[in-house]
Design a protein that fits this description.
This protein is of the alpha/beta class. It has eleven helices and 26 strands. It binds flavin-adenine dinucleotide (FAD).
């Protein structure tokens, strides 16, 4: 079996499948092993973007975000995007997975995924039947380290009737709590750190091939016989009886399309011969946006974050922030730093905090397509950000809610003035304009090889590529819909669930 991509999903799949010593597993990764010490430092996560191990994708200009091009960092390294991510661990609300169950059956419902969540997790803050204690992936719930300004922000929420939660993964999601983080002993724990430690990488039946980029699949009829890979500019082939694409929501559909599997017109425009006309490959792209910059200057110096800056998410129902059940539609995040989009000026570090806001269930749908036949041709990434009035309207509510909390008396000790958007921004048109100028990716692209039971679905409920017997896709691309929260926990649960089913098949 050949696993393509040693990111979040690929690390889990290769680790779990190689537990069976009779299963020979090859794991191919375009990047190399991490060596930059900054990766492990939670405070440095925003500085990693643009370094050698970032694919550094860019979107096409987005008409509803003031025609801006958005940077899309993605990890090109063993550990994938979990080496760059912000470490927030959020499973999502159980209702988020109902569309998954409708698409693929009960195993993809929250209760179907729960054993995978539990198996993955090392959570020791308290005992709960829905939580795992002895899995590989540490989930750390901070307490004493939480910044005083974040405590005041959570107190403001509670004073407004928002539910106080122990954390976001033990029941309901709507409410306020410190962020749960993939941190062990003060250091980032990537999914590869957790699932591919040296003793796993030393297994005789697991071969990790780094710095090898898969160009395309080698197809014969309804089967793949292997992959074409490039190393140092040289192309070779690797044979396999079974191929599992774990290359992520950008790269998995691109590999399919470079192999001739995709929408016939799209492939023609990219100069690729179409072998299987599959219109949905690369479509259904979903991503969360965050509006950077409801920024407040502080009356006194703000001590630096002791975690990863963004210390508390608050999930809410915009129509009634006191509602504590059901899947929330907005999210706020308190950041112990000024966080403003490019082109907007904010006070220096240590003299401002920010309340970010976002929409948990965007209805805009985008697409990813190749611009040419080779891996060096930059992908066309068009998320169609804020294309629907639904998304723009919910963003207005989210920003208004952020400001209400930011101006609450519980923050009086810290807040001086609202710097961004600033008091002049009041009308809905003003809010729309600010959102358009300040919305940035929350880094959660998903859905580009959606799973479903219908004929157009890219993969079936077993995550098998429709029309091909021995190709599977297991990563963020198979999500039919994006969950409420950051999606890494769900990616790991998908991989755990698929690996367990595959091992017993
Ligand atoms: P990835 O982890 O991206 O793995 C794909 C792997 O495949 C990579 O290692 C890549 O190099 C490799 N690959 C790709 N193409 C090829 C090829 N052709 N040949 C060989 N190998 C290939 N999520 C959260 O839950 N919480 C957060 O706080 C959070 N913050 C984020 C912040 C940033 C800056 C980023 C970038 C992401 C963040 N995410 C967060 C999202 C989360 O990290 C991803 O959703 C998750 O890692 C996706 O897992 P994946 O396995 O689908 O893809």
């Amino acid at each position: 079996m050949l696993v393509v991509g040693a990111g979040s999903a690929g690390s889990v799949v290769a680790s779990r499948l190689s537990e069976d010593r009779s299963c020979q597993v090859g794991l191919i990764e375009a990047g190399v092993m991490p060596s930059d010490p900054d990766i492990a430092d939670p405070l440095k996560w925003t500085m990693l973007q643009g370094r050698a191990y970032d694919w550094a994708y860019r979107t096409v200009p987005q008409p509803f975000t003031a025609n801006r091009v958005h940077e899309w960092p993605r990890g090109k390294i063993v550990g994938g995007s979990s080496c760059l991510h912000a470490m927030a661990y959020v499973r999502g609300h159980p209702d988020d997975f109902e569309p998954w169950a409708a698409a693929g059956g009960e195993r993809w419902s929250f209760s179907g995924l729960l054993p995978g969540f539990v198996r993955s997790e090392a959570f020791t803050a308290f005992d709960a039947p829905s939580r795992g204690r002895s899995g590989p992936l540490d989930v750390y719930l901070p307490d004493a380290e939480v910044s005083p300004v974040v405590r005041a922000y959570m107190a403001a929420g509670r004073a407004m009737g928002i539910s106080a939660l122990t954390d976001h993964n033990s029941g309901e999601l709507a409410g306020t709590s410190p962020n749960s983080l993939n941190i062990r002993a003060g250091r980032r724990l990537s999914v590869a750190d957790a699932y591919l430690p040296p003793e796993v990488r030393a297994r005789p039946n697991l071969a990790l091939l780094t710095a090898h980029e898969v160009e395309h699949l080698l197809l014969e009829g309804q089967r793949a016989t292997g992959v074409a890979v490039v190393r140092d500019g040289e192309t070779t082939t690797v044979s396999a009886d079974r191929i599992v694409l774990c290359a992520g929501a950008v790269s998995s559909p691109l590999i399919l399309m470079r192999s001739g599997i995709g929408d016939a017109d799209t492939l023609k425009q990219a100069g690729i011969r179409c072998l299987a006309d599959r219109s949905d490959v690369g479509r259904n792209l979903q991503d969360h946006l965050l509006v950077l910059g409801n920024v407040y200057s502080t009356k006194k110096p703000l001590p630096p974050s002791r975690l990863q800056h963004s210390e508390s998410l608050m999930y809410l129902h915009g129509s009634d922030i006191t509602r504590s059940t059901g899947s929330p539609d907005i999210v706020l995040a308190c950041v112990v730093a000024p966080s403003a989009a490019d082109g907007l000026s904010a006070p220096p570090y240590g003299s401002a905090f920010t309340i970010l806001c976002g929409v948990t269930h965007p209805t805009s749908r985008g697409r990813i397509a190749p611009s040419g036949p080779g891996r060096a041709d930059a992908p066309i990434i068009d998320p169609h950000y804020l294309e629907t009035e639904h998304d723009r309207a919910v963003f207005r509510t989210a920003l208004k809610t952020a400001r209400t909390i930011g101006h609450h008396p519980a923050l009086d000790e810290w807040r001086d003035v609202e710097v961004l958007p600033g008091s002049a921004v009041r009308s809905d048109a003003d809010l729309d304009a600010f959102v358009a100028s300040a919305a940035s990716t929350h880094h959660h692209p998903a859905g580009t090889c959606r799973m479903g039971g219908d004929a157009d679905a890219v993969v079936d409920p077993d995550l098998r590529l429709n029309g091909f017997d021995n190709v599977f896709i297991v990563d963020a691309s198979v999500m039919p819909t994006i969950p409420s929260g950051p999606i890494n926990a769900a990616v790991v649960a998908i991989a755990e669930t698929w690996a367990t089913a595959s091992a017993s098949a």
